[in-house]
């Protein structure tokens, strides 16, 4: 057996010395998990359950444990205090903790009783919240100078300021408590208007507006009260509060419609601006003095030829004697050409707007007896050659969306086939035999001719949609007839009850099979 093991080691290339050096580790023991026995169940009963958990949780109901207090309980004592808001000097008492009155940590009961006997009344802890407003006070001279009003008497004004001081400018409470004889119908807006007008007039009398400081100017501006605006605001708020659901829905519809109109108006303005930018042309900024005369025209033509990179350079210099003789004859042409060149900022840009004679023949000094075929080739080459101005304009062109193309009636066509053909020949109509046989009768019933009198692209597209809908309806009608036939068969089977059910079913199946057989031609 040991020899066989040695042979296996030799085949696998295992060194036996390495196996002898490494001690064999004992197999790991499977750790046994011990679950904690739940409370409220005995050990013997829990042992009977084994490893399975109990189907019902056993919960023992107990009362809440008593809280555990750390340290000793702080003593409380009765302490007197004074309220600064009271003017009668009355002293009241309330219970407070002893630690909140002494800084020492080693107080005993005897010390607490001694402090209680010699305690001084403390201030009320909530006295800091008793804040009084600084109400404006006016004198008799100031009232007689700037505060007189036919609708407000001095007694009523004093009564208003007394209520405002008592209730700390709480206007809702002031308006509710306002009960002056003969003026019980005063509204909150009337009271506010009178108060703020008195404050503004007194401040302006004491310190002119131009001499007020920054704080005084801000306070003076804050005293402005618009009674009519406040009444209108509350009326609108009340209307909004008592709106019906139908009015709310109508208002939301109007808001959505207004937003749509605003968006369409903005889009129309942008499209109009873009159209104006396309129709606009560069303004003339150069001078035409350099292109006057035969020499200037020759220079202009040379610049035109140089701007076309795909065209060979040609000499357009004319003989001196011929240039002198033709000077008068070319005066009219020079004027027209220089006018066109003046509308461009540079001579190279003027090449794209030169006269037709220059662009077709390629040279104004070229004799007119040249064959027309050669001039056509030159014009084709010059038209196909790209120019910097064309590339720049092409890069600035905006790509229109489908909605904009439909609005401007723009269409893109695929490469057309050579030869003449009718547009109706390219329509995609259903190829089913049922449609081909029955569509003429349906079209005649709808008063639609089979051959369109005006086969435009939109008309053909609508005709294709109509044809597809007719084919779909024909399929639906076929399916409906089939379902009706099956319904009749089922109703006949239900009418025949008892032992005749199987016979009727077999007869109906024979009838259905015979109806499906193709009829022989006579």
UniProtKB/TrEMBL annotation:
Gene Ontology terms describing biological process: chromatin remodeling; DNA repair; negative regulation of transcription by RNA polymerase II
Domain Myb-like, residue spans: 144-199
Pfam families per UniProt: SANT_DAMP1_like
Keywords: Chromatin regulator, Nucleus, Transcription, Transcription regulation
Major subcellular site: nucleus
GO cellular component: NuA4 histone acetyltransferase complex; Swr1 complex
PANTHER family, A to Z: DNA METHYLTRANSFERASE 1-ASSOCIATED PROTEIN 1, DNA METHYLTRANSFERASE 1-ASSOCIATED PROTEIN 1 FAMILY MEMBER
Name listed for the protein in its UniProt record: SWR1-complex protein 4
Organism: Arthrobotrys musiformis
């Amino acid at each position: 057996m040991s020899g066989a093991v040695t042979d296996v080691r030799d085949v696998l290339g295992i060194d036996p010395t390495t196996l002898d050096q490494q001690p064999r580790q004992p197999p790991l023991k499977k750790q046994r998990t011990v679950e904690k026995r739940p409370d409220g169940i005995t050990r013997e009963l829990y042992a009977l359950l084994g490893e399975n958990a109990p189907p019902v949780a056993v919960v023992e109901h107990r009362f809440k444990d008593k809280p555990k207090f750390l340290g000793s309980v702080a003593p409380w004592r009765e302490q007197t205090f004074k309220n600064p808001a009271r003017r009668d000097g009355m002293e009241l008492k309330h219970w407070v903790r002893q630690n909140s009155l002494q800084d020492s940590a080693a107080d005993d009961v005897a010390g607490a009783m001694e402090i209680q006997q010699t305690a001084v009344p403390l201030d009320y802890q909530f006295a800091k919240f008793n804040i009084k407003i600084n109400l404006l006070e006016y004198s008799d001279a100031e009232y007689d100078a700037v505060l007189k009003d036919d609708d407000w008497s001095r007694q009523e004004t004093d009564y208003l300021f007394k209520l405002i001081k008592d209730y700390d400018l709480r206007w809702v409470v002031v308006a509710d408590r306002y009960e002056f004889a003969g003026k019980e119908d005063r509204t909150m807006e009337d009271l506010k208007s009178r108060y703020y007008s008195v404050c503004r007039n007194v401040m302006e009398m004491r310190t002119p507006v131009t001499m007020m400081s920054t704080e005084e100017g801000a306070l003076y501006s804050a005293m402005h009260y618009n009674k009519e605006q406040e009444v209108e605001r509350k009326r609108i708020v009340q209307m909004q509060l008592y709106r019906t659901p139908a009015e709310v829905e109508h208002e939301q519809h109007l808001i959505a419609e207004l937003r749509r109109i605003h968006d369409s108006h903005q889009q129309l303005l942008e499209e109009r601006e873009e159209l104006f930018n396309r129709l606009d042309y560069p303004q003339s900024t150069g001078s035409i003095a350099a292109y006057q005369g035969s020499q200037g025209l020759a220079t202009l033509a040379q610049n035109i030829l140089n701007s076309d990179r795909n065209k060979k350079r040609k000499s357009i210099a004319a003989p001196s004697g011929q240039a002198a003789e033709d000077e008068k004859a070319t005066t009219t042409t020079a004027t027209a050409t220089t006018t066109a060149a003046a509308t461009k900022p540079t001579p190279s840009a003027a090449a794209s707007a030169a006269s037709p004679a220059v662009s077709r023949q390629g040279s104004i000094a070229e004799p007119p007896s040249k064959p027309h075929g050669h001039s056509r080739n030159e014009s084709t080459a010059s038209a196909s050659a790209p120019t910097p101005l064309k590339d720049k304009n092409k890069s600035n062109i905006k790509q229109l969306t489908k909605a904009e193309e439909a609005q401007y009636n723009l269409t893109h066509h695929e490469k057309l086939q050579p030869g003449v053909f009718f547009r109706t020949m390219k329509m995609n109509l259903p190829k089913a035999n049922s449609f081909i046989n029955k569509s003429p009768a349906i079209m005649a019933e709808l008063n639609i001719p089979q051959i369109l009198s005006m086969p435009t692209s939109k008309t053909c597209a609508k005709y294709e949609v109509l044809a597809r809908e007719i084919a779909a309806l024909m399929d639906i009608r076929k399916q409906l007839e089939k379902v009706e036939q099956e319904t009749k068969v089922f109703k006949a089977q239900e009418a025949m009850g008892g032992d005749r059910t199987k016979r009727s079913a077999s007869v109906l199946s024979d009838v259905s099979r015979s109806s499906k057989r193709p009829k022989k031609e006579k």
